[in-house]
Structure formats: structure tokens, C-alpha cells
């Protein structure tokens, strides 16, 4: 079955929060202490926080397969320090490990880019950990360019990220 990519709804909240927690932890647990990871998960992936994020003008798209949700993308206001008028930010894009390598991440990213264009945005920004070389290569293959360096705090750990931009 080809997965369905659709806008998340309020009824998806519980499954979406679980996917967000699971994919973030699976991606970054190896590089962080258990305490820092738990602090970040409990602070940023609480049901009430995600419910508020879903209740905005910015969409969250989910990848739905037979087994349930296997990926998601969340858009929001751009927080680039390097000003780019008219940009929207890709806040998060994650796939379950088993869903990687099937082209679903690219399809999900394209869905977010299509939405940004349809809403009149002239760029899509994102933030990516400098040590996540696979993600950086993926974004560059889709036309994103590094435009700045940023700090990201995970628990007590200050990490180095890149701000990237795709001009539409």
C-alpha cells in the first residue's frame, strides 16, 4: 500500500504525539544523556503542547500507512536569524525507521513545500543538527542551502545546528 499523506486532525492527537516522541528519541537518543532526552520529550512533546501546535494556521501533515502513522511534517513561522522575507519554517519532519528509504520523506517534504507555495510564501527554512549528515545531504538534494549557524538546547546540552533555506 502506498501511504496517504494528509493534514493531521484533532482526532489524530494521541497517535501523533506518540509518533513524535518515538521518532525524536530514536533519532537522537544515542547522542544525548537519558536525562536530557527525557527532559526534552516531556517539555516539547506533551499532548497539550502538540494540541496547541495543531490549532494554528500552520499545518501538520502525517504519513499514514497500513500500520498507522509512520511520519509527519510540521510547519510554523520562520525563526531564521538571517532575515528572509516571506519564509515559513519546516519545524519538524520525521519518519519511523522502517519507513525510511521508500521515498516517503521526499513526498512528505514536497507536500510541505507545495503548501508553502500555495499560501504565497517565498521560502522554506529549517533547522538541522550539524552532526546529522544524512538529513543535511537530503535537504541539500532538495535545494536547501545553509544560511546560518544556530544553537539548539536539548536538556542541559547546547548543540550546534544549521539554519537552511529553500527559496521558492
Under the CATH scheme, the architecture is: 3-Layer(aba) Sandwich
Task: Please give the share of residues in helix.
Answer: 25-40%
CATH topology: Aminopeptidase
The SSE string, one letter per element, is EHHHEEEHEHEE
**What is the 3D shape?**
globular
State the CATH class: Alpha Beta
Strand order of the largest sheet: 1-2-3-4-5-7-6
Report how far the terminal alpha carbons are from each other. 31 Å
- Name the average pLDDT: 94
Backbone CA Rg: 15 Å
Strand content: 25-35%
Could you describe the 3D structure shown?
By secondary structure, the protein is α+β, with helices and mostly antiparallel strands. The chain has one domain: 3-Layer(aba) Sandwich (Aminopeptidase). The chain has five helices and seven strands; from the N terminus they run βαααβββαβαββ. It has helices at residues 13-28, 34-44, 47-54, 104-118, 133-141; strands at 4-7, 60-65, 68-77, 87-95, 123-129, 145-154, 157-167. A seven-stranded mixed β-sheet has the order 1-2-3-4-5-7-6, with helices on both faces. Strand 2 and strand 3 form a beta hairpin. The longest helix is centred in the first third of the chain and has 16 residues, at 13-28. It is globular, with a radius of gyration of 15 Å. It starts with a strand and ends with a strand. The mean pLDDT is 94.
Amino acid at each position: 500500500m502506498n501511504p496517504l499523506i494528509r493534514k493531521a486532525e484533532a482526532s489524530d492527537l494521541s497517535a501523533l504525539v506518540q509518533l513524535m516522541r518515538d521518532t525524536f528519541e530514536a533519532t537522537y537518543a544515542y547522542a544525548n544523556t537519558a536525562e536530557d532526552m527525557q527532559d526534552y520529550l516531556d517539555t516539547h512533546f506533551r499532548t497539550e503542547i502538540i494540541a496547541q501546535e495543531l490549532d494554528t494556521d500552520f499545518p501538520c501533515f502525517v504519513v499514514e500507512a497500513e500500520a498507522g502513522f509512520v511520519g509527519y511534517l510540521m510547519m510554523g513561522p520562520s525563526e531564521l536569524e538571517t532575515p528572509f522575507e516571506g519564509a515559513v519554517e519546516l519545524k519538524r519532519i520525521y519518519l519511523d525507521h522502517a519507513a525510511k528509504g521508500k521515498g516517503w520523506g521526499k513526498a512528505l517534504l514536497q507536500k510541505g513545500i507545495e503548501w508553502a507555495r500555495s499560501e504565497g510564501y517565498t521560502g522554506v527554512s529549517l533547522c538541522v543538527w550539524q552532526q546529522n549528515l544524512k538529513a543535511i545531504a537530503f535537504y541539500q538534494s532538495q535545494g536547501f542551502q545553509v544560511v546560518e549557524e544556530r544553537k539548539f538546547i536539548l536538556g542541559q546540552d547546547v548543540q550546534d545546528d544549521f539554519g537552511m533555506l529553500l527559496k521558492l
